[in-house]
Amino acid sequence: MLSSVLLPLVPVILCIGLGFVTARVGWVRASAIPDLSNLVFLVLTPALLFRTMGQVRLQELDFQPVALYFGAVALLFALTLAFTRFSTRAAARALAHTFGNLVMIGVPLVGLVYGPQGLVTLFTLVSLHSLVLLTAATLVFELAEARELQRSGQAEPRPMAHTVWQAVRNSIIHPVPLPILAGLLYAQTGWTLPQALDKPLQVVGSALGPMALLLVGIALAHTRIGAHWRDAVRIAAVKNLALPVVLGLMAWALGLSGPAIAVMFTAAAMPVGANVLLFTQRYRVMQDEVSSSIAISAALALVTLPAALLLAQGFMR
Length: 317
What we know:
By secondary structure, the protein is mostly helical. It has a single domain (2-312), classed as Na+/H+ antiporter like fold (Up-down Bundle). Helices cover 76% and strands 0% of the residues. The chain has 14 helices and no strands. It has helices at residues 2-6, 9-24, 33-53, 64-82, 88-98, 106-152, 160-172, 177-188, 195-206, 208-221, 229-254, 259-268, 275-283, 287-312. It is globular. The mean pLDDT is 84.
């Protein structure tokens, strides 16, 4: 059993390592990372998401595991805010503790370990992940910023309703949720994708796994941890370890099990997602700490993910 669980991790680790070495020897420069990221998120990801969800009927989807995932996220998010002074720094830390890299690392790993049905479960989560978490985070950030502005006597904060609407809109009109929703709508028609479209989507989508993992390694090679490594390590430890533990305990308490719960547990163990950095840049808070935590969390995942996969097997029974 041990070998069957850990074997799919071999290509994941090798691809990340190859990307790291490729960048270290100078074959891929840091200036190329944005272009490679655009290729992964704007071309390869939508192809895989649309083709996979274009074969799924809504009645086949199970939202109970997704509700469990968001329950664990909400609990950890609230605990982070409760144990720190309410501020934009606390909001940034809470988002980093709960927002995972479900696409670049999650998709290839879940596909290798749990197969196509596991991907359907993951994509059900991914379709709501950004919308729910980023919209909720926007509310918290705006409330925290408004409080800080009022205390400092500075100008009035931005209208919250407009900001939240922008967050909702941008979370849907996005290269990850949009092809999932489009694929689901297409699947409900009962039509099958024409071969002339299905085959190119299959070829392009199959490149997502290796390209995304190579990009993770390349980004790690060009990331400097800096002076905030202690805060970064704490954030990475909470994201990689505490979130799956919280989810696992909730599943145990509720008596939930099965392959879908195993996928959610694995998803909870994913490292910190890059979207957290966008929020810190927007609100000009904890940028260095979060940037470092993304790199440390991804490196730590090479150790914590194998353990998470082994523990996830307990939910398969």
